[in-house]
Amino acid sequence: GLSAMAVPQMLGLLCGHADKVEALAALPHGRCASGAHDNSIRVWDLANGIEQGTLCGHTGHVIVLLALPGDLMASGSADRSVRIWDVAAMRQVSLLDKHRGKILALAALHRSTGSSGAGLLASCSTDLSIRIWNVDTGSEVAVIRIGDARHEQCVSSLTVPAVGRLAGGVLDASLRVWDTSSGEEVGHMLGHKRAITCVITLPGGLIMSGSRDRMIKMWDLRTLREMATLEGHTSGLSALGLLASGRLVSAAQDGTIKLWDIGARRETATLRADVAHVSALLAHPCGLVLSAGPSELGIKMWDLESRNEVAALAGHTRGVASLAALPNGWLASGSVDGVVKVWDPVCRREVGHLPGHEGSAVSAIASLPGGQLLTASVDGVVKIWDVEACREVASFCRVMTAIALLPDGGIASGANDSVVRLWAADMSIEVAKLPGHADLVTSLVVLPRSHRLASGSRDATIKIWDLEVHKNYSTLRGHRAWVTALAVLPTGHVASSSMDTTMRVWDTEACIELMTLWGHGLGVTALAVLPQGWMATGSRDKIVKVWTHSHSTQHHRPERRSDVASLTIQELRQRSPCGFRVVTPATAHLSLPPIAQ
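The structure corresponding to this sequence follows.
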């Protein structure tokens, strides 16, 4: 459901290190390892968020980790050593200490067909060398000399694009390829303007590189040519990863994580990690993405594979201006063409056609009790409909640009005078005026389990109102054009859509933006959450899109931590049998949604 689909907040926080985390590695059986500036390596079970063990031995901070065959793991440190660990036995296997500088990157070389053992390992260091090791014997096999320090030829990242080849990003902004048998350089690619900080291999002989120049570039190993450039980050790249879906995930020093459609060569989503910069990133095979920043001691877990469009409902002749979810799971959409349509999003078909607004744009829709629907158009006409019978029940005139039903049975409305008004249930008495916006009020939504109302406006802001004292509680800023619609997600967070073509997710308690999403080609004009947890969006591109999690499992998610903390572990497991616990800095065990299987 949408509770997992649009989860912008972390799914979990793994705490235990005494200093900042710099390295992450995926391990078999749903585990991961983390290395930190406390010189330790910790192994975690991602299914329950519990630490399985700590590996100690390094005398300097851990910079890089790499999983190896046979449940082995390699680590590189500022103490100039590479260590091999048996993760199952939680012990050190060997020490590789011939480097004369700190270890910056590791890469496992392709094993020959039919060979056994852990194979060969490459390590690069600030001593301007790449060393190749036999993991099974702990012996050094070869040394590749890079250059001299005067020309900034230190290799900062490694990847293995093909058998017998090793590629590295260099601080002089070049991408180089070596023959691992001879140690000779066989490729030298230029294109970045500043140091390359991260490289990964894609299927088909492609390499992706991230740089301090804020660019991500795609290279063809066979032709040694640049194929594409991905732009979007506002600061230097710190890490790259490849998701199981084939999408690229990138992290930058501005604290953002971005998703990319490599085939379309475009950005699809941005996540703000709430840190100064993301120093470590891991795309785990289990479907989670883990991130760590230099200013925090924990490791955050995200579900970035959770957005998936499942339907496009076409039928309006002009842009969609408003959406509302109906109690029976249907969806109502209002258009600039003056028509209201009712959809069954599961069957992906139109089930109702309400043409009564006669060419005037339907600017607001609200679901009423008893299967009725309230619609308002820009000409000031408000209509009430019997949805199942597809007939008009009542009509009256009152200029409204936004409508919301209040918990006490009253109605909130927005108008083109920028004022939010509160009304009695029959709209005969105006209870209160809430001025504050600088332009027309476009959308209203009641926040769950609180006496608060959110309003969106053409002034590009979202305001949170206290309905008890009739005052502005906070203002959310982030959209670059007017806010068109608001909806409450099953998480309790608020989603907003805008003419800037984005959808954003907000924590209204903390008053911060959590995520930015893209999907439509033109401005997103309408937004609604369906009862089954799906999200629907409408746009000026005349399309209604329905979005859901790529897995159909519905997840229970507590809306406030205080509610979770009051539950016992047994109660939590009854609510979410596949859930996991997370150790917070306060060492409280909280239940979070299950990891998608």
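The CA atoms of residues 418 and 439 lie 5 Å apart.
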